[in-house]
Amino acid sequence: MDWECCWDRDVIEMGDCPNIHEGDEDLLASRRRRILEKCSDCEKFRRDLGRFNDSGHPLASVLDLVHGEYQRQRNQIHSLVSFLDNKTIEIRFMHELGVVLQSSVDLEEVLSVALTAITAGKGFGMNRAFLLLADREAGLLKGYLAIGPRNLEEASQTWNEILSNDMDLKTLAQNFRLNKLSTERAKFHDILEQLKVPLSHHEHIAIKALDSKHPLLIEDAFHHPDVDPNFAAQLGVDTFLLMPLISRNRRVGLIIADNCITHRSITDEDMHSLETFSFPVAFAIERASLYDKLQIELSRATEAGKKLKEQQELIVRMESMALVGRITSSIAHSVRNPLMIIGGFARSILKNTPSSDPKRDFIESIVSETQQLEGVLDEILNYSDSLYPTRDFWDVTQLIETALRDTADVLMMRGYASGYSPEHDLPAVYIDFKQISYCLRTVLQSDIDGMGDDRTIAVSSYRNGESVVIRIEDRSRTLSQAELDHILVPFSETRDLGAGLGLALCKTILEKQGIPFEARAGTEAGVIYTITLPTHKEEQQ
C-alpha cells in the first residue's frame, strides 16, 4: 500500500511533511519524534489511517483506538500544562502582591497595589474597581478610591501604555500612586461621593455582601430584586462583583469590580481568585489604618509630653520667681524702714540748713542718693508683686494716655517732648492694667546711658492680627543691640545702682504674662520698644 504520510520513512527532506517548519530540522532524521509530535495531527496520516481501516486488517481497529486515546491524553496534557502555567503566573503574582502588602504600613501604597492588582492585565484583569471603606465612627460604608477607565478611548490608551512599558505589578502600583492616584480620585469623585451606605442598612446589597463575608456576583442589576436602582445607576453597569474585605471578623470595606468596557463575563474562577486575594488586602488595609491612627496618637502623646514638660518648666520658674519675690520683698522691706528714716532726717536737716553752710552739699547728696535707693526698692517690690497678675479687658488708648500723664513732669524736667498717635477703633486688650501701666511708665522714663541730642519720644498703637501693638520710639538713645540685650537681663551689672533695672523687670513682668516685649536698637540712632498685647483670653493660658 502506498502511504501519503511520511511516517514509514526513516529520513525525509524538508518539504516532505507539511507540519515540519523552519526550526524543526532535527525531526527530519528522527522518525519516532516525527510520528509522536507531528503525524497524529497530519491530514495525510489520517487518510492513511482511514485506508488502513478499510483494508480489513485485524490491527486496524486497535491502531485507530490507540491513536484516539493518544490524542485525548495529549490534549489533556496540553490543558494541564496551560493550567499549570496560569497557576504559576497567578502564584508569582500573589507572591509579589503578598510581599508588598505584608511589608507596607502606608495606607495609600496598600490601596494603590490592591486596586492596581484588580485592574491590571497581569493581575485579575477587571476593567474598573471601587473601594469602599467602613467608617465605624460615622457608621457608614463610603467610597474612598477608584481606578479604571470611564470610556473605551481612555481604556485603549491605558492598555497600550501598559503594554509598551511592560511594567511589573509593583512598578505599576508605584506609577499609579505617584502619577494617577489624585487624578483617579478626582475622576471618580462624583461616583465616590454617592457611594455611601449606612452600616446598619442590612437590606442593602453592599451590606449583605459584608455580612455574608462572601463575594456576590450581581447580574442584570437594573432589574435585580435585591439591588437598589439608585445604586445600580451610580455604578452605571448591570453586572458587577461585590467582594467584602473582612479581617478577623471585622468589616474593613468592600471592593466593587466590573468589566464596563470589555463586558467580559465574570467567571467563578475570577470570584475564587479575588476571594483569595481579599484576605491579605483586608488585613493590610486594617494594619495600615491602625498604623496611621497610632502615628496620630503618638503625635498627640508627643505634643502632650512637650506641653507637660513646658508646664513643669513653667512651674519650676514660677516657684523660683516666687522664691525670688519673697526674698526681694523681705530684703526691700528690711532696708526700706531705715532708709526712710535716713531720708526723713536728711530732708529735715536740709530744710534747716542755710545755703551758705558748706555742709549743705553733703546733705543734698544724701537726700538724692536716698531717693534713688527708694526708687530701686519700689521697682523691686513691683517685681515681687508681678508674680500674680490680675487681668481684665482695658482700653489701650486710655492705658497709654494715663502713662503719658503720669510721666509728663519727669519727661519735661529732662527736656523730652512726647507724642501719641493711636489707630482708630482699637479693640480692648486683656491685661493687668496696673502692671502694664507700670511697664509703660518705666519704658517712657527709663534712665539708661547713651543720651543723644534729639530728645523725642514717639508713641503709637496699632492692630496686628489678633493683637494690639504699642510702639515707643526713644530717639535720644544711641545704644548697640548688645548693650540693650545686656540691660534687659534682671539684676545685671550696670554703671550706676538701679540704672536700667526697670527695663529688665518690665521684661520679666511681661514675659510672665506671655506678652512679647522687644527692645531694638535703631539703624542710625534711637531705641524702639514694642509691646504686643492680646485681645483674647485664650492667648493667656
Question: What's the layout of helices and strands?
Answer:
Elements: H1 31-37, H2 43-54, H3 60-103, H4 107-119, E1 128-135, E2 140-147, H5 152-165, H6 169-187, H7 189-194, E3 196-198, H8 205-212, E4 216-218, H9 229-235, E5 240-247, E6 250-258, H10 268-351, H11 360-385, E7 392-394, H12 396-413, E8 417-422, E9 429-431, H13 433-444, E10 456-464, E11 467-474, H14 481-487, H15 501-512, E12 517-521, E13 527-534
Parallel strand pairs: 8-10
Antiparallel strand pairs: 1-2, 1-6, 2-3, 4-5, 5-6, 7-9, 10-11, 11-13, 12-13
What would you say this structure looks like, in words?
This protein folds into three domains: 25-87, no CATH class; 88-294, GAF domain (Beta-Lactamase, 2-Layer Sandwich); 387-540, Heat Shock Protein 90 (2-Layer Sandwich). Helix content is 53%, strand content 15%. The chain is built from 15 helices and 13 strands. The longest helix has 84 residues, at 268-351. The radius of gyration is 47 Å and the shape is rod-shaped.
Précis, in short:
This protein has helices at residues 31-37, 43-54, 60-103, 107-119, 152-165, 169-187, 189-194, 205-212, 229-235, 268-351, 360-385, 396-413, 433-444, 481-487, 501-512, and strands spanning 128-135, 140-147, 196-198, 216-218, 240-247, 250-258, 392-394, 417-422, 429-431, 456-464, 467-474, 517-521, 527-534.
